[in-house]
Write a structure and sequence with these properties.
Blueprint (H helix, E strand, L loop, with lengths): L1 H24 L18 E3 L6 E3 L9 H10 L13 H6 L7 E4 L5 E4 L10 E9 L2 E5 L6 E5 L6 E2 L3 E2 L1
Parallel strand pairs: 5-8
Antiparallel strand pairs: 1-2, 2-9, 3-4, 5-6, 6-7
């Protein structure tokens, strides 16, 4: 009799453990976020000094301030969708006068960009920082100086996007 009770308890214990194991295997936690997709480092540069992630190249054509904002906010790159125009201080943070990255100005003239991360530029990037109504700051990665332009200006102006 004792053997039958022990066998029944043992069988019940085995069945409970098997059921719990099967239940645990079939669980797919819906509230656990998926890991971020791998970042294609050919398209972005991560600045180790600031933790910011930059697009490896600007948009490549003349663009006014409103278009630059739209370009960055609509950008889907490296598995991320939270791109934005940088503030003026962030642009200044990628300027390095000791680096000469060869490039060309919009008229074809050779130029040296003084920019970290080997970023490919084709014009002066807009910032999201405003000087006053209708005027925004840019940062010249050639001269190392902030410059301001009217929102409607699009001559040699580019969108270089950033995210944290």
């Amino acid at each position: 009799m004792i053997f039958a009770k022990c066998a029944a308890i043992f069988l019940l214990l085995v069945l409970c453990m098997a059921g719990a194991h099967a239940y645990a295997q079939n669980q797919t936690p819906a509230n656990v976020p998926a890991p971020p997709p791998p970042v294609d480092t050919a398209d972005v540069w991560h600045d180790p000094a600031t933790g910011l992630m930059w697009t490896k190249a600007d948009n490549g054509s003349d663009i006014n301030w409103n278009q630059a904002n739209t370009y960055c906010s609509n950008l889907r790159l490296g598995g991320y969708s939270d791109w934005r125009l940088p503030i003026i201080d962030e642009l200044q943070g990628i300027y390095d006068p000791s680096i000469d990255t060869p490039g060309h100005w919009t008229n074809g003239d050779a130029i040296y960009w003084h920019v970290k991360g080997n970023l490919r530029l084709s014009g002066t990037p807009w910032s999201s920082s405003l000087e006053n109504a209708g005027v925004a700051w840019q940062f010249s990665l050639v001269s190392g100086r902030p410059v301001s332009f009217n929102f409607s200006d699009a001559s040699s102006d580019r969108a270089l996007c950033v995210r944290r």
